Amino acid sequence: MAQADFTIGDIPIHGRLILAPMDGISDAAFRLLTRRLGSAYSVSEFINTLDYANQKNYQKKRLLARQEERPFAAQLLDNDAVRMAECAARIEEEFHPDIIDINMGCAAKSVAGRGAGVGMMRDPQLVRDAVAAVSRAVKVPVTVKMRLGWDSASLNFLEIASLAAENGAKALALHGRTGKISFHKPAQWQPIAELKRAFEKLPVIGNGDVCTPADARRMLEQTGCDAVMIGRAAKANPWIFSWRSREEVPIQEVAETAIWQLGDMLASDPENAVLPFRKYLKAYLEPSHLPRETMRTLLTCPDPTRLLALMNEIFRELGATLP
Ligand SMILES: Cc1cc2nc3c(=O)[nH]c(=O)nc-3n(C[C@H](O)[C@H](O)[C@H](O)COP(=O)(O)O)c2cc1C
Predict the structure, then answer these.
(1) I need a labelling partner for 197 at 20 to 30 A (CA). Which of 172, 180, 269, 295 fits?
(2) Cα gap 182→192, rounded to integer Å
(3) Hey, which of 17, 18, 19, 22 would you mutate to test ligand 1's pocket, going by the most ligand atoms within 8 Å of its Cβ?
(4) Residue 55 DSSP class
């Protein structure tokens, strides 16, 4: 196999584009699809370790990854170092992820308000304790995904990165916004460059507002980061992981991808596949500018067999050749 682009701990990583973890989007089917298209590794949707401890099955569903998806990182979200370490050990035993990632970026009020997600960045002692305890509890490398800081008055990503690295973190992902900056404001990339300059030996993964392959190239060049994490733009263009803009993707491939994805989601959860699938289908079909009525029929169809038939019909009309 070709030489790795970089390593996380002892795990070779091939490629410089990575699907960002996204609650409600980076499910098992979408992750596998993006891995096949070139995403260098997968990260689970966040696992709330409190819910995991209480045996909530939906948390476990987030940890099912296929062999082909590896390296696979399980992402923990909590505000308690001991509980996170215990949960990491159990996840390692039950699901054998290749990496454990700690979420220091989620800014939802209910999460950050209780000191989890980006809330951790306000508590350096918690960062120290959590990274150290989780690193001790598992054999696999531990990584951290963070923001610039809690708000613009506390841009402490360099301090948090140092604490994480000193206590065992093997890679650092940085989303170029604070917890208080909404998606309407642009992400800052300069801090990603600062982080890379400060941590030459650790992989630094830049994140925020990468919408096209050209953006990804620009982030790599401008910041010197080792890889780029792509979130929202991936939903409409998973092909970005093979360095293609959406206009470059033939309708045949869009059709085959969408049909495969629905099939894969149905195979893993027949009762709950159609609803979560609709958001991808809507995003994939956006550039085709279908009549509003056609979209409505597609996106309200509750029956998987009927939906597949409709998709086949529409993709054929758009020029795809389907069996
Ligand atoms: C719908 C949604 C869900 C997200 N869920 C998570 C999550 O579970 N864990 C996490 O670390 N970040 C989560 N994020 C943040 C993304 O990983 C990423 O940092 C952010 O979207 C910025 O990247 P982008 O500009 O490429 O979208 C989420 C973002 C979105 C839009």
Answers:
(1) 180
(2) 18
(3) 22
(4) T
